[in-house]
Amino acid sequence: MSSLPINESIDLTLGSLLAGSMSAVGLSAIVGFQTFLYFQIYPQDQMRYKLLVAWVWLIDAAHTLFVCLTVWDFAIAHFGDKEHLNVIPFWYPAHALMSFAATFTANMFYTWRIHKMSKGNWYLIVPILMLCVARLTCGLVLSSVEIKFKLWATVYDHFLTVRAASYVASAITDIVISVSRYYYLRGLNQGYFQTKEVLDTVLVFTINDGLLTSAVAVAIMTCTLAMHTNFVWIGLFFNLTKLFANSILATLNLRNWYRHMHRPMGISLSREPHLRNTVQFEMNRGHMPTSPRAETMTQNADSGMMDESDVLEVQVNKQIEYHVEMDKYSGSTLDGVPKTVDLKV
């Protein structure tokens, strides 16, 4: 039988749990703030996005509750009982189920966006879906055996391969999704993003987002294999769900910021040099204007950083020419020719 957590110091057992839980609660607060921000900025967004945000918040709230109950069971309910460190409390697999649900939700959300951006490239979508399902299956198996056997040593001895496969699938899935999003977002450069700086910002966020979750998954797997006699890996695992939840909400909320990086928010009137008589009305709170290449952006709306329901453009193109003879009013002439003024509006 493998060594048990009781052989480690309290710093690496309860200390790791407390540190991980405090970090998770802090990230959960950011999830709550982003949820509030979303409903304030996009009250007229599509219902599917509203339901997605509500679902993510509910999962995150339940996950935070189960994390706190797990720490309570070890640190308060069984304070000083080292033997209890060998036992898996019910709240831990319950928290893990919420984690796998949040992960699967994020994977499906980004897979759907890749499907839109790639115009239905099933040769890419099917492998991603298989990775997502494999990841979810491993998670469900682990949660089931943890509830059944209730001992860390038993789960580690008999299901280490499943746990390792779960984290490997997690890292690979995040990398594939991140690279795919990067590849297709680069293809939206023409006629979609207003400036190259905006495009670069989106690409940097996309890559860093995927690399962060992948790095955490690899760190969890490494700690599980190298330090399975302590709870450092659990402290890291507490925070993985929060990263996925914040990733989804940040992707939705940053649509507004991307569109206004180089112009003021609110309602404004603007004239563009190549459309001198075109007036665009820019409206806040989820209904934003497109660039002059409106047709291209509308075609790509569902696949990029905003949606068709988020776009409203009003163009007024009217030219009026006035020919005014000034001598009728002032009586003045220039070399016998009446003064005239041509006005164009």
UniProtKB/TrEMBL annotation:
Pfam families with a match to the protein in the record: DUF6534
Protein name listed in UniProt: DUF6534 domain-containing protein
Residue stretches spanning the membrane: 12-39, 51-72, 92-110, 122-144, 164-184, 205-227, 233-254
UniProt xrefs under InterPro entries: DUF6534
Keyword annotations of the record: Membrane, Transmembrane, Transmembrane helix
Domain of life: Eukaryota
Domain DUF6534: 170-256
Keyword Transmembrane applies: yes
